[in-house]
């Protein structure tokens, strides 16, 4: 039932150009996907149409051309750089006499190869089951004769009905297990919220360098490779930020144009780290000629998962591949960081990145000079524990003179916790 090609098979690729922007796909990206799947592309069939054909997606003449390419190259599979309907797949298979895979099936197969954790494997299986459920007729066409009548009535269901029932049961089972994972994530998130640790989420187009940057920042040893979807399973690490303190950094799955909806739905638990983040670090491969289009595609997916309103800091990565670009921070009219230029591979600009992150999530900082009398030892101890003291000295009368810098919310909480008016000790506000 779970028919899939084996890595290393010979494939004929099919790419069709459409005038409609929403139907356009990138040929170079198809070649990267095929390479990431471990498939050997031996021929490429291209063409152009105004709209897809209902029967073959391509015209009948182009379908014959694809079949000839399969026969001439002894290919095992045909891979379309487009989404095909189940009927189009079946019709093409009958013409080509081999397995036909669409873009969604190819991405699902790469995900199946990459998933490492229990949660990741469950999410991929859920997406595969949802995709396959519309294509179950394949392999059971002989059962179409079972239409009832004399001699054909039976006590049980057809094989196709059995498969559909088993699929529904398996999908329900996986959803229940993923719901438990989601609850565990929510508990962890609540614990982080209680500890007031902000969450940062790395997002970006696939192969933009997120995992390399993640490893550079955290020394986490996450698998990173120059291929699409090298990272599937989310990884969380604690980092230390100046003026902010500890924060959680999450590495997430890369996005891609026309990301299959089954995948978006299946990876909902993972993508919640992105939805709940205080700041998104949008990593962009600035050496890629299609970077502007990739940025748009990432923002489209962020809107799909209800994370479009989360503040972003753009990280312009791979500057080592650009001419005359040095690490620096771009700021808006109000002086807030909007872009940081770095090279994760070479470790360039990482200090500037930390500075920009601290400024972005630590903007609500307060800075005071305090004069604290000796009797307020409790307040003094609290300030030491919060590690917010930038300078200290003693007055002649024994009062403690101290400069503090901390998040505004910490100042208000300190006031609430000590049940005293801290403003009476403030001698200067910076």
Q: Main β-sheet, in a few words?
A: 7 strands, mixed
If you consult CATH, what is the topology of the largest domain? Rossmann fold
Distance between the termini: 68 Å
CATH architecture of the largest domain: 3-Layer(aba) Sandwich
Based on CA atoms alone, the radius of gyration comes out at 28 Å
SSE diagram, text form:
Blueprint: E1 10-17, H1 27-36, E2 40-48, H2 60-73, E3 77-80, H3 86-96, E4 99-101, H4 103-114, H5 118-132, H6 159-194, E5 199-204, H7 210-218, E6 235-241, E7 245-251, H8 261-266, H9 268-275, E8 279-285, H10 291-304, E9 312-317, E10 328-331, E11 337-341, H11 350-361, E12 365-372, H12 377-385, E13 389-394, E14 400-407, H13 408-418, E15 426-429
Pfam family, one: HflX_C
Domain Hflx-type G: 198-365
Protein name: GTPase HflX
Condensed summary:
The chain is α/β, with parallel strands linked by helices and 430 residues long. It has helices at residues 27-36, 60-73, 86-96, 103-114, 118-132, 159-194, 210-218, 261-266, 268-275, 291-304, 350-361, 377-385, 408-418, and strands at residues 10-17, 40-48, 77-80, 99-101, 199-204, 235-241, 245-251, 279-285, 312-317, 328-331, 337-341, 365-372, 389-394, 400-407, 426-429. It folds into three domains: 10-101, 3-Layer(aba) Sandwich (Rossmann fold); 196-362, 3-Layer(aba) Sandwich (Rossmann fold), CATH 3.40.50; 365-429, 2-Layer Sandwich (Alpha-Beta Plaits), CATH 3.30.70.240.
């Amino acid at each position: 039932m779970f028919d899939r090609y084996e890595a290393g098979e010979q494939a004929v690729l099919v790419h069709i150009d459409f005038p409609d922007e929403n139907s356009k796909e990138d040929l170079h990206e198809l070649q990267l996907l095929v390479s990431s799947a471990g498939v050997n592309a031996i021929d490429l069939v291209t063409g152009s149409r105004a709209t897809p054909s209902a029967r073959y997606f391509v015209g009948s003449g182009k379908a014959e051309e694809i079949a000839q390419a399969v026969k001439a190259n002894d290919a095992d599979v045909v891979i379309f750089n487009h989404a095909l309907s189940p009927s189009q797949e079946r019709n093409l298979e009958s013409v080509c006499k081999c397995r036909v895979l669409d873009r969604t099936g190819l991405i699902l197969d790469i995900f199946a190869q990459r998933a490492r954790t229990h949660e990741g494997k469950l999410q991929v299986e859920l997406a595969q089951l949802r995709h396959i459920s519309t294509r179950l007729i394949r392999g059971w066409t002989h059962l179409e004769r079972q239409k009832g009548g004399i001699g054909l009535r039976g006590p049980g269901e057809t094989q196709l009905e059995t498969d559909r029932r088993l699929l529904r049961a398996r999908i329900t089972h996986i959803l229940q297990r993923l719901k438990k994972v989601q609850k565990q994530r929510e508990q962890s998130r609540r614990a982080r919220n209680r500890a007031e640790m902000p969450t940062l989420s790395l997002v970006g187009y696939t192969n933009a360098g997120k995992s390399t940057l993640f490893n550079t920042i955290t020394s986490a040893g996450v698998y990173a490779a120059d291929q699409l979807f090298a990272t599937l399973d989310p990884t969380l690490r604690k980092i230390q930020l100046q003026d902010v303190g500890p924060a959680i950094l999450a590495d997430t799955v890369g996005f891609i144009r026309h990301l299959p909806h089954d995948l978006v739905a299946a990876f909902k638990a993972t993508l919640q780290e992105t939805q709940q983040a205080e700041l998104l670090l949008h990593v962009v491969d600035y050496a890629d000629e299609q970077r502007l289009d990739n940025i748009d595609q990432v923002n489209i997916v962020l809107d799909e998962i209800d994370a479009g309103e989360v503040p972003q800091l753009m990280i312009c990565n791979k500057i080592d591949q650009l001419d005359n670009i040095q690490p620096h921070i771009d700021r808006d009219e109000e002086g807030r960081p909007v872009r940081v230029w770095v090279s994760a591979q070479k470790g360039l600009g990482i200090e500037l990145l930390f500075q920009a992150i601290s400024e972005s999530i630590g903007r609500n900082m307060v800075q005071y000079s305090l004069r604290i009398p000796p009797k307020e030892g409790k307040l003094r101890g609290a300030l030491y524990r919060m590690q917010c003291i930038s300078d200290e000295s003693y007055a002649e009368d024994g009062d403690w003179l101290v400069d503090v810098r901390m998040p505004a919310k910490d100042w208000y909480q300190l006031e609430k916790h000590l049940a005293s008016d801290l403003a009476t000790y403030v001698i200067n506000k910076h």
